[in-house]
Amino acid sequence: MDDQLAISVRGLRKAYGDNLAVAGVDLDVHRGEVFALLGPNGAGKTTTVEILEGYRRRDAGEVSVLGSDPGSPAADWRSRVGIVLQGTGEFDELTVGEVVRHFSGFYPDADDPDKVVERVGLSAKAKARTHTLSGGQKRRLDVALGIIGRPELLFLDEPTTGFDPEARREFWELIRDLAAAGTTIVLTTHYLDEAESLADRVGVIAGGRLVEVAPPNRLGNRQDALATVSWRTPEGVAESAESATPTALVAELAARFGGEVPGLTVTRPTLEDVYLKMIGH
Amino acid sequence: MTTTTKPAAPVAAAPGARRLGSGALALRQGRLEITQFLRSRESVVFTMGFPIIMILIFASIFDGTIGGGVKFTQYFITGMIATGLMTVSFQNLGIWIPIERDRGVLKRYRGTPMPKWVWFAGKVIMVVAIGIAETALLLAFAVLLFDLDLPATVGKWVTFGWVSVLGVTACTLCGIAISSLARTARSGSAVVTPVALVLQFISGVFFVFTDLPAWMQQIAALFPLKWMCQGLRAVFLPESFGAREPGGSFELGRVALVLALWCVVGLVLCLTTFRWTTKRDG
Questions:
Q1: What residue ranges are annotated as transmembrane (chain B) (predicted)?
Q2: Which of A19, A24, A221, B43 has a CA between 20 and 30 Å from the CA of residue B226?
């Protein structure tokens, strides 16, 4: 296996009864990369990620995560992998500090618990019982437990669900910090802006298959897509045209209108447009 | 504060680096379990309070003797000690493990490098600590309020010890095993409570065992609680009472044998059926 790869997947398949949840996925994630898995509910994101995390058995395919098969990993494998699951496993009766400190004891090279609590923005809640936390704060605790062991590879399954916009920005900063320090990050998300702002590459999964893998700005050949130029006629009727040369078209319109073009916009497909088209909308 | 980067040399004095031994991990896990137990008020009241409340009620209703000059309270307390030990181990684990499994607590532990057995050790440490505390409290109440006679000889205390240890071990293993029957967090209590209640009625906790119908006695003899009660009667009742037992003596050898068998059965069930995740987790 290539040492530069944190994850290598070939022909991964997994069925639940008649339902083929993962229908042949090939995927490489490089060391130090931030990789986002995008897809609608039921597309196979969580199943794929949980096979990589060693929680689920696969029906077929080859999987290597940090050089180990997650189905029968090497002894120290779990201490090199950080996991933030989708559902939170709560410790209602314990405080934030107690839980993080306890989990730090499981890892050979754990980070300082106080520092990690501060990093996820829970210092003010360190002495609070976890059942008093808001949804977003519980999620931050999950993230704290995911990074306490200083993992080489961090899985995040829909990490920012329930975050307010400010908390999401702070979380993105944290992920960028971790990535800058060399942590490989695999996250699943519903939020396109999250994938666009964090990921080096995005994989779109639909119906158990990886539809495309590309950097966010190249997904669906977005950079080559025609631009849409829209304007209004003097009568107020909306017009638009697709163009490979929008600048020329705007110049032509400006000449035609003798100056300002009413209601002028020039757009290219957003990540959302491309994404929705890919998953079949 | 110093920020450590990944150290080239392991362990050292880096502030975050602490490679704990397995024993230390198990002790920490036990301490965490005890903390969680003590902080959850329902568990404490239910587990610690139930046997004492039952003693207060039964001792107030039945204050006669049951033959052989033995007070009913003395007889009943042996049953309540056994019940208390079963509550702390079998019911406590059978109810809480499904909740933790459902919440994803177990799944989260499985995602860490913690050795699996450490989690079980934590539960056992919790059960033993709470069991000792609960039994001591029960004995203190019984001595103060109902003039319970504590065992007079070292031999009886030794019997008390091994019957309790074997009984708690069997009930702990069965509690962990039965936790896998519950599909959701809420059904743990529905699975475990009827089993415990029926066993209490047929095993001679609330009634004098030999007063029960013979078929009931025979069913009870298949399960651990009857033998825990019988072993404890050997500790707390006079030697002469042994003649009134179904087998004509306290049959301590058989008590040890049946409880040990249940330990084996429980262990096999645990090893073959235990689940860290719920069914819907695949």
A1: 44-62, 74-97, 117-145, 157-178, 190-209, 255-274
A2: B43
